[in-house]
């Protein structure tokens, strides 16, 4: 059934359909309506979950870690500085291989204070060992939340579902609300391999020596083996997510582009690349330029960690130019996605030129005309623009 | 690279015009000072000024008599709450402003 | 830049319910066959009493651009006092439509080159049994009458559903009364 609701409501509905069992969250704009909605679901008994009030984001993630370690399906959500406040616990959740799911409506980071959208918060947390999925509209938000729980428990790695703050969290658009019975068959109950059990005592994630150690089973991994396994399993999660998405598509009739979402890319000479709802805004620009005879397309990166480098190289090799638009950067260097894409393309025989535009930080409005101007310039002189990131829309 | 003033490197603001425009339009209740009860007016010296001190928008002047800048006063009523002489009352915004007050 | 999108900008004050009004119209438009419906409120801190605006885009096709409206086809003004404070017709397309909650007759409102529709939504709301100042349900009736985009018969059940627990029948009645008492002018 289609309903018209906010992106945050779409996320909350996904969490309800996924039957999360423990929710702990601390309110922060623009995430707040999501957690309010969840507490309403718990209060009205539409969702049979324990909603645990906490005094900070660090505690929210700590509660989720405890709940997940005890074998329950745990969920939290935050934004911006709240995400950074839980950063230490993010690393822990990944290292402990806990299938926690978290929504992050993306917001810029203070100082100076901003409540508006950019993607510096989650992009700066790309190296914590979590899977990062980005949604472009409300349908993708609710679908991604459901798929995220399935992925997390399949690979034992926590998943962030990210979507642009305000632009998606606070806008209203129609989306289909999947049937509970179908979600139940798609997403079986979480059965942990190991969990905290008073009947069967164990010690999880205590001090682990630099070298391997003997234990009752023979030999146990040291720190470096455990971390290497996390990396290998993250890489393997790319294929796992493709399989999960295929199953989802069979059940619900939606999906088919879990890692990157391409629009008009097949015969394109030029491809715009970005993360999040901007990739949808760019579609209108692509249509305008196609009308004028420019062979151009746009690719939205849906999964950013693990990085789908092979898919991206296949899509971009042989093109004249890839134009990367970003709402976040590695300060003192360049856009984070830009660096990742260039690195992925290094071994390709048919490397395109790659350009980098930074825009929209702190919610600065992105005008369609600005995108059109930037793309036109990149398409007109792909070889002369060079490697330095260019800013769009600076006024002073 | 051009040299920047420190003020351009950070976000800094002062009382006065800002993002909200003339925030006085948000007002539902308007503070009116009864000058006969106002301590600095009565004593004719710089005293009290709790209204000036507590105003979150810095729209009350530290003068005799205190003057409220209605372009930016949002009508929060903190001045009326804090005035030890009870000299400030909050009146409905639709009440006409009396001359000389 | 897409020609197929009808852009409606709603002007109200924080707390007045412009978002709810736009959401109800969005639902009705979707039910009426407009598959592309996007409603975007003013982003940021909510300030009671401050002028706010909400963008509603309607199209037969999916809408991808979430940026605020700059060249509306229709503007809806929930609060008469906003006319002195906000340039509500900013960017309004030629022959655009202004839908006003106003107590004066149509001839008193002049917007060069624009069509104007007026109804005294505040008074009609009271007639419907709502407390004074509740205008967001009523203004929907004026929108239906003046724009012709959505039928009042489709709106009424959506209003009743949206206002569950908040006087649904009276809000629906307000929309109906306003609908029947909206004066629509020419150019």
Q: Report the major sheet of chain A.
A: 7 strands, mixed
- Provide the β-strand percentage band of chain A: 15-25%
Give me the CATH architecture of the largest domain in chain A, please. Answer: 3-Layer(aba) Sandwich
Largest sheet of chain B, order of strands side by side? 1-2
* Beta-strand segment tally of chain A: 17
- CATH structural fold name of the domain at 31-90 in chain B: Alpha-Beta Plaits
CATH topology of the largest domain in chain A: Rossmann fold
Features:
heterotrimer; B: 101 residues; alpha+beta; C: 187 residues; alpha/beta; Pyruvate-ferredoxin Oxidoreductase, domain 3; 7-stranded mixed sheet
Descriptive overview:
The complex is a heterotrimer of chains A (about 400), B (about 100) and C (about 190). Chain A is an alpha/beta fold and about 400 residues long. Chain A has 2 domains: about 1-185, Rossmann fold, CATH 3.40.50.970; about 260-390, Rossmann fold. Chain A has helices at about 5-15, 30-45, 55-70, 80-85, 85-95, 120-125, 140-155, 180-185, 225-250, 280-290, 310-315, 335-345, 370-380; strands at about 1-5, 20-25, 50-55, 75, 100-105, 130-135, 160-165, 170-175, 215, 220, 260-265, 270-275, 295-300, 305, 320-325, 355-360, 390. The termini of chain A are far apart. Chain B has a two-stranded antiparallel ribbon with strand order 1-2. Chain B has a domain at about 30-90: Alpha-Beta Plaits, CATH 3.30.70. Chain B is globular and about 50 Å long. The mean pLDDT of chain B is about 85. Chain B contains 4 helices and 2 strands. By secondary structure, chain C is of the alpha/beta class. Chain C has a single domain, classed as Pyruvate-ferredoxin Oxidoreductase, domain 3 (3-Layer(aba) Sandwich). Chain C is built from 5 helices and 7 strands, in the order E-H-E-E-E-E-E-H-H-H-H-E. Chain C has helices at about 20-30, 120-125, 135-145, 150-160, 170-180; strands at about 5-15, 35-40, 50-60, 75, 95-100, 115-120, 185. In chain C, helix 1 packs across helix 3 (about 135-145), helix 2 (about 120-125) packs across helix 5 and helix 4 (about 150-160) runs antiparallel to helix 5 (about 170-180). Chain C is globular. The model of chain C has no long low-confidence stretch (mean pLDDT about 95).
């Amino acid at each position: 059934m289609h309903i018209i609701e906010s992106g945050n409501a779409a996320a909350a509905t996904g969490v309800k359909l996924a039957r999360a069992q423990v929710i702990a969250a601390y309110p922060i704009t623009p995430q707040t309506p999501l957690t309010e909605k969840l507490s309403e679901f718990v209060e009205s008994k539409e969702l049979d979950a324990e909603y645990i009030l906490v005094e900070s984001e660090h505690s929210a993630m700590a509660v989720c870690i405890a709940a997940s370690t005890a074998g329950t399906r745990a969920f939290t959500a935050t934004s911006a500085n709240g995400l950074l406040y839980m950063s230490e616990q993010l690393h822990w959740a990944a290292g402990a291989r806990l299938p926690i799911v978290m929504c992050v409506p993306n917001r810029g980071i203070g100082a100076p204070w901003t409540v508006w959208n950019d993607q510096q918060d989650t992009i700066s947390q790309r190296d914590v060992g979590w899977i990062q999925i980005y949604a472009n509209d409300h349908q993708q938000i609710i679908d991604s939340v459901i798929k995220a729980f399935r992925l997390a428990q399949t690979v034992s790695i926590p998943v962030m579902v990210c979507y642009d703050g305000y632009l998606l969290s606070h806008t209203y658009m129609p989306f289909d609300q999947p049937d509970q019975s179908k979600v139940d068959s798609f997403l079986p109950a979480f059965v942990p391999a190991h969990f905290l059990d008073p009947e069967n005592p164990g010690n999880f994630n205590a001090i682990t020596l630099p070298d391997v150690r003997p234990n009752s089973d023979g030999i146990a991994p040291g720190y470096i083996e455990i971390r290497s396994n996390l990396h290998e399993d993250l890489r393997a999660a790319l294929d796992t997510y493709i399989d999960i998405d295929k199953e989802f598509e069979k059940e619900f009739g939606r999906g088919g582009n879990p890692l990157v979402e391409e629009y008009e890319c097949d015969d394109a000479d030029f491809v715009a690349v970005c993360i999040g709802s901007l990739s949808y805004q760019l579609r209108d620009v692509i249509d305008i330029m196609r009308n004028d005879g420019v062979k151009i397309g746009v690719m939205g990166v849906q999964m950013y960690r693990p990085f789908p480098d092979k898919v991206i190289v296949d899509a971009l090799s042989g093109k004249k130019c890839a134009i990367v638009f970003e709402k976040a950067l590695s300060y003192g260097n360049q856009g984070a996605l830009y660096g990742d894409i260039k690195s992925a393309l290094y071994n390709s025989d048919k490397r395109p030129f790659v350009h980098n535009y930074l825009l929209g930080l702190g919610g600065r409005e992105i005008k369609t005309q600005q995108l059109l101007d930037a793309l036109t310039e990149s398409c007109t002189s792909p070889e002369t623009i060079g490697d330095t990131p260019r800013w769009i829309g600076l006024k002073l | 690279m051009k040299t920047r003033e420190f003020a351009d490197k950070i976000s800094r603001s002062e009382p006065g015009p800002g993002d909200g425009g003339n925030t006085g339009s948000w007002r539902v209740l308007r503070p009116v000072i009864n000058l006969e009860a106002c301590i600095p007016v009565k004593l004719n010296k710089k005293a009290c000024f709790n209204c000036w001190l507590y105003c979150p928008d810095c729209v009350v002047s530290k003068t005799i008599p205190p003057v409220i800048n209605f372009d930016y006063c949002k009508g929060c009523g903190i001045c009326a709450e804090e005035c030890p002489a009870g000299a400030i009352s909050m009146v409905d915004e639709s009440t006409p402003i009396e001359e000389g007050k | 830049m897409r020609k197929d999108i009808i852009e409606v900008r709603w002007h109200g004050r924080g707390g007045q319910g412009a978002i709810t009004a736009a959401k109800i119209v969005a639902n009705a438009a979707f039910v009426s066959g407009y598959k592309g419906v996007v409603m975007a409120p003013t982003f940021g801190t909510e300030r009671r009493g401050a002028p706010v605006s909400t963008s509603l885009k309607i199209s037969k096709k999916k809408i991808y651009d979430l940026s605020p409206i700059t060249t509306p086809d229709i503007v809806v003004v929930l609060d008469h006092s906003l006319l002195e404070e906000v340039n509500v017709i900013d960017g309004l397309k030629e022959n655009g439509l202004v839908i006003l909650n106003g107590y004066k007759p149509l001839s008193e409102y002049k917007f060069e080159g624009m069509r104007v529709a007026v109804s005294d939504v505040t008074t009609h709301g009271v007639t419907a049994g709502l407390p004074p100042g509740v205008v967001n349900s009523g203004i929907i009736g004026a929108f239906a009458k003046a724009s012709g985009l959505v039928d009042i018969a489709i709106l009424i059940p959506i209003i009743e559903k949206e206002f569950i627990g908040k006087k649904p029948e009276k809000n629906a009645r307000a929309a109906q009364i306003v609908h029947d008492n909206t004066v629509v002018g020419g150019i």
